[in-house]
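The material for today's practical consists of a large collection of protein records. There is nothing in a record beyond a sequence line and a structure line. As an example, a complete record with its sequence and its structure tokens follows:
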Amino acid sequence: MSKTNNGALPVRASRTQTGNLGFENKLWEMADKMRGHMDAAEYKHVVLGLIFLKYISDAFQTKYDDLAARQDTDYTDPEDRDEYAAANIFWVPKEARWDKLQTGAKQSTIGKLIDDAMVAIEKENPSLKGVLPKNYSRPALDKHRLGELIDIIGNIGLGDEVSRSKDILGRVYEYFLGRFAAAEGKGGGEFYTPQCVVKLLVRMIEPFRGRVFDPCCGSGGMFVQSERFVEEHGGRLGDIAVYGQESNPTTWKLAKMNLAIRGIDANLGPHQADSFHNDLHKDLKADFILANPPFNMSDWGGQRLKEDVRWKFGVPPANNANYAWIQHFIHHLSPTGIAGFVMANGSMSTNTSGEGEIRKNIIEADLADCMIALPGQLFYTTQIPVCLWFVTRSKKADLSAVRLPDGQDTARHYLNGFQLN
């Protein structure tokens, strides 16, 4: 589900919060100058689509050069598609490779060249079908600025080792997601949750291995941070199985690209869908659930779901989806599963329309483990204070005792790195 909370607050991410490489902000400023009068909501697809194209082209070219270098001794063929499939690398046809686009960057036909490249890539890679932006040739998009943008993105990662180059592109994509969310204000919350909040959720539930699920996944930030947490603690990419769902079609596409650029294999379903009315993972029982659902949704269609099997602790009110989300999360937990998610502070005390009774039933079932009240003004879409809920079917871990090595509270550590304008 898309996050459509009321209100807006511009937010600036600090160096300590993002772990910047040092040039992302300069790169953002250069790219942002290229958009002219175009809205950030529209421009993000232009930029992020090109970063994605640069990523898959770089990955392809690296493999291509390796195969070409071994061609005489190992009899490898750099044009053998099976070699790329075996390495989990997208096949990039000749007309879609970055060097061809770079060469044509100053031509008036550059928009069509990019659109044709996106179409060719989708045709050759079924998992990307319908995902990539393909409207670069529209008259409203300044082709001179577009060519300059290609030159800017074309320099990302050059001169670095291959693995570092890929990581740079991934982190630039992630950084740009956050900056676009801030630039969009209210609309930015539809696809982005501040990193400090995501890191805190991940640190608290520690998803080392198992199935991770986010039924309102936005651009996939929960999954990126989960994979990063696994790797930082000695695990490997793929130790967790990723499942997600998103109702906004453009945000679903952003998530697909974001995860692909990080090398994360995820099941986001074949298309966007409403988690309440078209649950694409109906039989999934997840070991970990991470989510930031939209707060206080009044138009979620609850009147059509009065008899739903998910409402084990009580029927949620038709004019507010908060407790529908909470029970949806609990429904999808495995017998030893744990969920951490964001809610409006009011969810901890409300007694409206039977919500207090539902909360009482959840507590009496011994599912509520820990709650953390966060300060206000953390999100792009609302100034109200929010809280984190942690529910679990297994009380083996004491979440309230989680501490950093230096003795600071986990929440304070992650939120201190987040500065507000």
Q: What stands out?
A: The beta strands are 11-13, 210-214, 240-244, 266-267, 286-291, 333-344, 368-373, 386-392, 418-420. The CA atoms of residues 6 and 382 lie 6 Å apart.
